[in-house]
Structure formats: structure tokens, C-alpha cells
Design brief:
- This protein is an alpha/beta fold.
- It contains nine helices and 17 strands.
- An eight-stranded mixed sheet has the order 6-5-4-7-10-15-16-17, sandwiched between helices.
- Helix 1 runs parallel beside helix 3 and helix 2 runs antiparallel to helix 3.
- The protein is globular, with a radius of gyration of 20 Å.
Length: 352
């Protein structure tokens, strides 16, 4: 399954983007045909497409779409709208910027080439993250041949092009018969864990248990979890990590229980221009997602709501960051104040 891909035109003219409509899962598997930038911005903001790697590819393909379908004087405005569609996600901006730079040099075909290269690199990168993460867990937990791992939100194929980030590690463990079970947080308020991750695990035949978000800490404290695997939407230069709201709470619980806490994300998610988590803009998605679910009211219609989509986990609570290029052991890079040093090439990280 490819979550997102480019479909060339049958004849002369622009192609279009084909993507899985994640808002309709698990009830219905449906795909969207995206032919305009307006449609793509709407799909991104509605979470029809989501997840750091998939957003990067969507952003790059969106630039190609803009250059191929819009008048020249409207392209830059459309590119800016696309880049700002979800401000916390680093990969969306990376994909847009990469394709836009190529478009300015070589037009729509160059932008499309950049987008397709990003797609292919994501497929290879997710496989590399899976291998690195599974090998790291073997080293961290050598006496546990089969693991109970906990995850939040959705970091699988639906969050990427084919395989995913943190969930790709779980898929690898399952394929190697090293997975006892995955514990999946339902992930309020839109239930990406219950709707999407559980759906993916069912498709791969992996053993899993769905839990309410508030049960995770208790299960960890009771010894029911061997490791926590999460994704990331942005990793600051000091290792602080923005991810789905609720991730910070899992990291606190993991620290209390002595459970390894791994962040698995593509290298492009590391934003060295952002010094720390305090500098990450956190998207608030408004009241509707909390007051109701799929049109069914779950709270008073006038209930005041705060709905941050992400939180920031301090680097001091993260055991390691796993990317497609390296493993950064944050426990080896803590200052006396408890903060990690720069997550950059100057670290003595493990290289492939």
C-alpha cells in the first residue's frame, strides 16, 4: 500500500496526487484524487494526509502541482499557503522548500523530479529506521527475546509512503517473531491510534491491544511495557521533540518505570534552526474536535476548549533518537542540568 503517490497524466497536461483518505478509516478504504493546491491544503488540514514523512512528500508534490496548474504570478502564493498548512510539522516545510528550489531552477518537471526522489528516499529511509530501531532494542533489552512495545498516534505506512517510522520498527519485530504485542494508545481526540494504527496492525497480522490513553502510565508502572516507540513532527537542535499530544506524558511514565523511550523519525525532522522545544510552534486545532466526534456531540456545545495537537518531550526524557541515517544516544549526552547537547553531526552518534 502506498499512502501517497503521483499519477502521471494519460496525455498532455498535469498529473495529479493520489492519496488514502485517512479520515474515513477504518470504516472505509478510499482514495482521493488531488488536482489542485486548494484540494491539497484542505486534505492536509483535515488530516486526510498526515504524518511527518507523508506530509513532506505531499508538500513536494504540491509544489509540482502548483507549478503545473497555476498561472506564474499565483504560484508563489500557493506555495506559501501549502508550506503553512500545518506549522508544527517540519517535514511539510522541508518538502515544499526542496521542490520549490528545484522549480525555480528547472520549472515543473524539476519540482516533480524532486518530489518523486523524496518519495523514493522515504521508502528506503523507513526501511532503514526499522532496521536501526529493531537492532537498538536488541542491544537495550538483550534478555527479552519477545517485546511488549507501546506506541501513540499513527506512525505506520499511513504516516509515510509505504512503511512508516516507529510502527515500521514494530512491523520489523513482528516479521522477526520478536513482538509479543503492541500496546496502542487510542490517541484522543481523533483516535489515530484506534482508527489507523490498530487497522495497520490488523492488516499485518500482528498481536496488539488497544488501550485508552490514560491507561498507559499504569500499565508501564506495573511492568507491562518493555519499550515505548513514538514518532516526531519536529526535533529541535537540543533533542527536544514535538509529537502528538500525550507523548510527553508517556515519556514521564517511561522514566518513572525505567522503560526505554525511543523517538523514530526521518533525519529531515531534525530542525537545527530550532534551538529547543520552547521555540516550536504548537498547532491548536480548535474546539470542534473535542466537543464532538464524527458529528456526535460529546460535550456541551459552548464548552471552552484548548486543543493543542502536539506537545514537546524534553531531550532528558528520551533514551535515543533513531533516524534513517543514525542513532543518537541521548543518555550519553546529558549536561549536569539535564539538557542534551546539539543533535547534529558533531555528536559521536552511531553511523550506518
Amino acid at each position: 500500500m502506498r499512502t501517497i503517490d503521483w499519477v502521471p497524466a494519460d496525455g498532455p497536461g498535469p498529473g495529479h496526487i493520489r492519496m488514502v483518505d485517512q479520515t474515513r478509516l477504518p470504516d472505509t478504504f478510499a482514495e482521493l484524487r488531488i488536482s489542485t493546491v486548494d484540494q491539497l491544503v484542505d486534505a492536509i488540514q483535515r488530516l486526510s494526509v498526515r504524518g511527518a514523512p507523508a506530509l513532506g512528500v505531499a508538500g513536494a508534490m504540491g509544489v509540482a502541482l502548483a507549478v503545473q496548474t497555476l498561472p506564474t504570478d499565483e504560484v508563489r502564493t500557493a506555495v506559501d499557503r501549502l508550506r503553512a498548512a500545518r506549522p508544527t510539522a517540519a517535514n511539510l516545510a522541508v518538502g515544499v522548500d526542496l521542490a520549490w528550489a528545484q522549480a525555480q531552477r528547472g520549472g515543473g518537471s524539476a519540482a516533480l523530479d524532486a518530489a518523486l526522489a523524496m518519495r523514493d528516499e522515504d521508502i528506503a529511509g523507513c526501511r532503514a529506521m526499522a532496521a536501526r530501531g529493531a537492532e537498538l532494542l536488541s542491544r537495550l533489552l538483550p534478555d527479552r527475546p519477545r517485546l511488549r512495545v507501546l506506541t501513540i498516534c499513527n506512525t505506520g505506512a499511513l504516516a509515510a509512503v509505504e512503511h512508516g517510522t516507529a510502527l515500521s520498527v514494530i512491523e520489523r519485530l513482528h516479521g522477526e517473531d520478536r513482538l509479543d504485542r503492541a500496546l496502542v494508545c487510542e490517541t484522543r481526540p481523533l483516535l489515530q491510534g484506534a482508527r489507523l494504527t490498530a487497522w495497520e496492525l490488523s492488516r499485518m497480522g500482528a498481536r496488539y491491544e488497544l488501550i485508552v490513553d490514560s491507561a498507559a502510565a499504569s500499565i508501564m508502572a506495573g511492568g507491562g511495557v518493555d519499550a515505548v516507540l513514538v514518532g516526531a513532527d519536529r526535533i529541535a537542535a537540543n533533542g527536544d521533540t514535538a509529537n502528538k499530544i500525550g507523548t510527553f506524558a508517556l515519556a514521564l511514565a517511561a522514566a518513572h518505570a525505567g522503560v526505554p523511550f525511543l523517538v523514530v523519525a526521518p533525519e529531515t525532522t531534525v530542525d537545527t534552526a530550532t534551538a529547543s522545544g520552547a521555540d516550536i510552534e504548537i498547532e491548536d486545532r480548535g474546539a470542534d474536535e473535542v466537543r464532538a466526534f464524527r458529528g456526535v456531540p460529546t460535550a456541551p456545545a459552548d464548552a471552552p476548549v484548548r486543543n493543542p495537537a502536539f506537545d514537546v518531550t524534553p531531550a532528558a526524557l528520551i533514551t535515543a533518537i533513531v533516524t534513517d541515517r543514525r542513532v543518537v544516544d541521548l543518555t550519553a549526552h546529558q549536561t549536569p542540568a539535564g539538557r542534551s547537547v546539539n543533535v547534529g553531526p558533531s555528536l559521536n552518534e552511531e553511523e550506518a
